[in-house]
Structure formats: C-alpha cells, structure tokens
Write a structure and sequence with these properties.
Keywords: Hydrolase, Lyase
Number of helices: 6
Bound molecules: hexanedioic acid, magnesium ion
Structural class: alpha+beta
CATH class: Alpha Beta
Number of domains: 1
Pfam families: FAA_hydrolase
Order of helices and strands: HHEHEEEHEHEEEHEEEE
CATH topology: Fumarylacetoacetate hydrolase, domain 2
Low-confidence stretches: none
Helix content: 25-40%
Shape: globular
InterPro entries: Fumarylacetoacetase-like_C, Fumarylacetoacetase_C_sf, Hydratase-Decarb/MhpD_sf
Largest sheet: 7 strands, mixed
Distance between the termini: 38 Å
Strand content: 25-35%
Protein name: Fumarylacetoacetate hydrolase family protein
Number of strands: 12
GO molecular function: hydrolase activity
Length: about 250
C-alpha cells in the first residue's frame, strides 16, 4: 500500500471513529502536493461508501485564522453530504473529537465553475449566497498540525450549516457577523476579513478545483472561509450566527 493510501485510511478512520491521531508528518515527511493526494484518497473512501462530494471549503482565508493556526497559506477541502447539519437542527458531540465553529459565507452554484475566472465570471455561476457556520474538528491530537497535516485531514472540515439562500447580487464585501453561543455574543467579525471580499475566495475555489481536476457543478456549495477565529464547542450548546443582510443560521450540539 502506498503511503498516500495508508495515511488516507488513517485520517478517514480517525474522522469516522472521532478518535484523535498523532500528526502523520511526524511518521513521514511529505509536501503539500502529497497532502492533497491523501485528502483526495481519504474523501474517495467516503464517496465509495455512498457519501458524495457536495462542494468545497476554503480555509485560512482570513488573517485571524492564519494567526490562530500559525500558517500563511490558503488551503481547501471537500464537503460531503454527511457533513451537512440542517439549519436549526442538531448535531451530536459523539461525531467529533474537539469541534470548533466559525462564521462563514456560502455560495450556491447554478453553473459549473472551474479554472481561472474573474470575480464577475465567478459570480455569474452563483445562484444564491447565505451565511453559514463551518464545524471544524482536526483529527490530530490537541488540534496541532503542520500545513501538510491539515491539508491531508481535509482542512479540518467536519460539518457545515447553511442559512436561507439570498439573491446572488447581495453585496458581500462588508457583512457584519456575530457569533452567539447560548444567546451570548462570543465573536464579532466582517466578511471583509475573508480575503477582503468573499468573492475572492470563490475565485480561488474555482482555481484550486480546476487544478485538482475537480468539477464544481450546479447545486454544489462553496464555503468562503471564516470571518473570525473559530470558537471551541461543548455539548449542549446552541450556536447562532447573525449576519447583516443575510439573516441567521443556527444549530445545537448535544
Ligand atoms: O479556515 C479554515 O477553515 C481552516 C481550517 C483548518 C485549520 C483549522 O483547523 O483551524
Ligand atoms: Mg472554515
């Protein structure tokens, strides 16, 4: 078995069993290209189990996230159907190791999107925009990883909640975002923190998907990245994101 397949199985098993593993780069050094190959192979295992890809997430798209995690490169991961948490619904703590939540903007595609595009071309492929919450849950012990580790681990992505879709013409350049836990505000941010405008994350999503030979199809979702640092979650909490002009989205973890 190649090391790509070995580590793909390792991170996949950690994800489905919600058991933390040591950083895989401590066992074998590899680069970011190999890390994306591990990510692709681990997600392919899910797809083979009947859990299709429904979109992609962009990560480290804000200064706050880069500072929080001590990295400087933008990364991306794949979203699969089992990761969807219904807006207003529940998710189970037992599915995660040490989950965190972050406020994001999501795009719903109405046309295929791939390769090098301008912001206007990217927006032309969008059928709706919404506020969203990403649940991240590094499969590594203590949420500690190198860039290659986190890329191999699907950029820590483990779930996502999307609010009501709004018209794609909505100006996304400065959406005020408030994260509330159990009715108390715990984080404030602006969508401007996402590469200056989340549309830039969509342009990057088209490029990285094209480079990976992944086709972003109508109906797929692109998560643009976080507007603030992530907040750690505990069982029993109610998490609600309020976003100016985009309403809110929420879930409970039990
Ligand atoms: O911005 C992101 O979604 C990056 C997620 C990967 C790093 C992390 O676990 O915080
Ligand atoms: Mg994120």
């Amino acid at each position: 078995m190649s090391f790509i397949q070995k580590f793909a199985e390792r991170v996949d098993t950690a994800a489905i069993s919600a058991r933390a593993i040591p950083q895989i780069t401590q066992e074998q050094d590899f680069g970011v290209d190999e890390a994306y190959a591990i990510q692709a192979a681990s997600i392919d295992r899910r797809v083979q189990r009947g859990d299709p890809i429904v979109g992609i997430k962009m990560g480290f798209t804000s200064r706050a996230k880069m500072v929080q995690m001590g990295v400087s490169d933008l990364i991306w991961g794949r979203l699969t159907r089992s990761m969807i948490v219904e807006d207003g619904g529940f998710t189970e703590m037992s599915r995660y190791i040490h989950p965190r939540a972050e406020p994001e903007i999501a795009f719903l595609l109405r046309k295929p999107l791939s390769g090098v595009v301008t912001p206007l071309q990217a927006l032309d492929a969008v059928g709706g925009v919404a506020c969203a919450i990403e649940l991240i849950d590094s499969r590594y012990e203590n949420f500690k990883f190198s860039l290659a580790d986190v890329v191999a681990d699907n950029a820590s992505s483990s779930g996502f909640v999307v609010g009501t879709w709004h018209e794609p013409g909505t100006d996304l350049s400065n959406i005020g975002m408030i994260m509330n836990v159990d009715g108390r505000p715990v984080g404030y941010g602006s969508s401007a923190a996402i590469l200056g405008d989340p549309v830039r994350a969509l342009v990057s999503a088209a490029r990285v998907a094209g480079e990976a030979g992944l086709s972003l199809e109508p109906g797929m979702v692109v998560m643009a990245g976080a507007a603030t640092a992530a907040i750690a979650l505990e069982a029993g909490q109610h998490v609600r994101l309020e976003a100016s002009g985009l309403g809110f989205c929420e879930f409970r973890i039990r």
